[in-house]
Amino acid sequence: MYIGGTGIDGLHHLAFEVIGNSIDxxxxxxxxxxxxxxxxxxxxxxxxxxxISVESVDGGASFLESVFTSLHLSxxxxxxxxxxxxxxxxxxxxxxxxxxLCRHVEVESxxxxxxxxxxxxxxVASEALTLVGPTQRQGLQVRLFPDPEIFQSAAxxxxxxxxxxxxxxxxxxxxxxxxxxxxxxxxxxxxxxxTETANGPLEPGSFGVxxxxxxxxxxxxxxxxxxxxxxxxxxPIASWVNLSSTEEGGSHVKxxxxxxxxxxxxxxxxxxxxxxxxxxxxxxxPRFEGPTKARLAVPTTEPLVRAFVAAExxxxxxxxxxxxxxxxxxxx
Length: 332
Prior knowledge:
Strand content: 25-35%
Structural class: alpha+beta
CATH topology of the largest domain: Heat Shock Protein 90
Number of strands: 15
Number of domains: 2
CATH superfamily of the largest domain: Histidine kinase-like ATPase, C-terminal domain
Number of helices: 9
Oligomer: single chain
CATH class of the largest domain: Alpha Beta
Largest sheet: 8 strands, mixed
Radius of gyration: 22 Å
Strand order of the largest sheet: 5-4-3-6-2-1-7-8
């Protein structure tokens, strides 16, 4: 009921809940590295964020223990914003249900110079919270082993996880990502996304990537032109919000297209079929619509993105000139 099923998709929901918890630390500017490893059925996720508090909650169990043994209804237990759901359908359940669906969960929190450890089995503490001792590290490590009595397959698929992690890396160029001990970071961010996923070759010199913040909305967008002979009817603009894919677009994509049209005026009609682009927003309170929640529905982001795209491109004389030069060589 929490993760949609006991098949392979439900199993990977567990992994994305834990990875999403680390990405929350990134969005809060608390973490700069995330590593994910698989070994003998165990999944290990580690970040260099602030760890989890071990302070008592209302005189009872520690905050860390409550996180892994109870269900919460608020977006996050400690209130950080913005928040991310990287699971399918943008449905997040928190670490409590993850713990309940695992035979073993081991947690190490490195916080304020001290390391604390606890373990859980099927949502119940199996190893009391203990102080391990001083630490020079900072962050959280979660190791989990899914319950084979619940899941039809208790084996995570490395390829599925690696594909998702590489996507996360495109959207967080400032983060050092590792998978199975290998660096999979993408310091060029969305520029790497365009070059690695474009349907056909791109025009040299037509690339641009821009980022900034306006009205508490973080905006990153990238653009390029396909080479001659790669015409399409619709400009494919890939889009995300808080690292979650918005496959059906929405207000941010409308704003990006409008900003490009403002920049290139009458030339946009010819340029549009050649454009490849991507836009990523970080919002404190995103809203989505559609049965799969794949379309952003925050009307205020459309004019914000439109103005940001037009303003950034207005500063890029060389890029605009290059596009217009390419335009003169395109098929009529």
